[in-house]
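User:
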Amino acid sequence: MERAHPVPDTVPDTAPDTGSGAGPGAVLDLTQDAARLTAQLVDLPSVSGGEKPLADAIETALRTLPHLRVDRHGNNVVARTALGRAERVVLAGHVDTVPIAGNVPSRLEDGVLWGCGTSDMKSGVAVQLRIAATVPAPNRDLTFVFYDNEEVDAHLNGLGRLAEAHPDWLAGDFAVLLEPSDGRVEGGCQGTLRVKLRTAGQRAHSARSWMGENAIHAAAPILARLAAYEPRRPVIDGLEYHEGLNAVGIEGGVAGNVIPDECTVTVNYRYAPDRTEEEALAHVREVFADCGVSELVVDDSSGPARPGLSHPAAAAFVAAVGGEVRPKFGWTDVSRFSALGVPAVNYGPGDPNLAHRRDERVETAAILRCEERLRAWLTS
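Assistant: Predicted structure:
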């Protein structure tokens, strides 16, 4: 899922003590089903910046499988088959979670597994590991990518670092990101652009306000334009995306008796994958061109990814797993695969609406169903 909290440029190699009893040297049992394996992964905490123990365990487990070549870069582990198949498919997932909120260790109640990361996305990682362990001769060559720091600032993202250092490790004809999608295929992802729109004024004593210019009042045209904005709903590869342009923050004010000379409105634009980052920024500039903006500063930008559903491997995947294909309105790392020229979709067992919550959970049946459908696709 999308990054939730910033961390420093330097991150620790080990996770803080959580009292869970799971520590370095943990051994993953890949012979158990994906639901039980999910519980084991949850009980080995891996908050962003503390993924090393889990990355160690994943690397160790994969190196016991003779049909895989295993490479590692930092806390990112990549395993690949080399069977000479006509196509190569990448199955990718991040191993980090948001901070633990009293929801580790995991607990199983009435077919529901509770705990930090159950939905986002250790259930998806468990499915990856099970496929890696139990499908030694798939009908397509496979690459398994387990990466760190997805839930934090983009420059720390392990998949991004792999793309810079070892792009050949990520090569493929099609990719499946096992982000939580409630067991349905979600095509591509929308881009996200965050900008800060500043208005300028002149300070004055509030008792003599006519001597100044109120920068907060000057932001009114920006807010009016946002309130009246009608977002596009373009159809791409048969999927209808729904854009959004919204204020997500506003700052201004000096003191209770001062007319403010500066105001900043933070705006987030979620845009469909038929636009580039440059086109998205140009659109935002056009929208606010006559709103009295003194300065526009780009605060964050991540490009979109087209669905790529016309690719034969994608069509075969959709046919194998079934269900209605939906557009991905949020941003995910399918964007990074798209930038590498690899069409990608989101497909995982968790419910995205439960990600990052204290009561995060996943139905064990959904995990097993995801594993079964991926296995059928790769062995039929």
